[in-house]
Structure prediction request, 335 residues.
Amino acid sequence: MNVLQFTDNGIYCPAGDFYIDPWKPVKRAVITHAHADHARWGNEYYLCENASVPLLRLRLGNDISVQGVAYGETIFFNGVKVSLHPAGHMIGSAQIRVEQNGEVWVASGDYKPEHDGLSAPFEPLRCHTFITESTFGLPIYRWAPQQQLFDNITQWIYENQQAGKASVLLAYSLGKAQRLLYHLKDKADHFLVHGAIAIPHDVLLQEGWPLPPVERITPETPKSAFKNAVIIAPPSAEDNAWMRRFHPYALGICSGWMQVRGNMRRRNADAGFALSDHADWPGLLEAVTATGAEQVYVTHGFSSVFARYLSEKGINAREVTTSYGDEEMITNPEN
Prediction:
């Protein structure tokens, strides 16, 4: 039974008449998380996890019709059972579990099995069919433990301060930036941030998330404020006039793509930290195995490689084409 179908508009449930993360406007959309490639403007109705509601309103406008549900809460669309479960990708991210006549499909969206301490930890779900991302679906991508990464970032900041330099960390504005701030909150007196980070950060602070206060950088911010400072900016701020005010500074890039050292050199960065909100190769395999799925569809990323590997391991896997991107992409990081 094809509980879900891949269509020109997105992942569609015919019996329930809803789409999951549609890339074209539809009547009813169930959203995995608030990143722009998964939550697009123009749908008549949105369903998401409760924590994603203010983020969707921020990204898409206060006038959207959006309903929030708790993790594990069950709702029905035309008799089809739907529930949202933690994906561990960012605050409010969810896997969508869809059950029709005893057949269970799970669309995972973006996910990571390692608990980041801020977003709800990934929940393995048993199912017949699993739809998985493959952003880092190559064996080379194996993340160091989170604590080790943040110890390295903290040491780098300390060395910069000893050298009289500001520390500029590039991280995606929604999700990654808050993860950085959460884990560094006891390592710095205060943080200066780009406006693209300050806006969603303020929304999350208002919602009660345990994040440190930040200072938004404006044209009026004095140059003296940048001395030895910790500055967090989106990747789109790299190599433009906005950065020049921070001299002297060291540049660190926080992205899974930094696992390949050549990427750091090509971007002329002083440091690269392979900090990702996506599953690495072992994480992808762990997640797929935990589902017990008889059938796996592999979407955005190294989909052909990962699908082929799963097939060689005896899993019925195939690649499917979607319009999802990757907020960590080097060439176009701010999608």
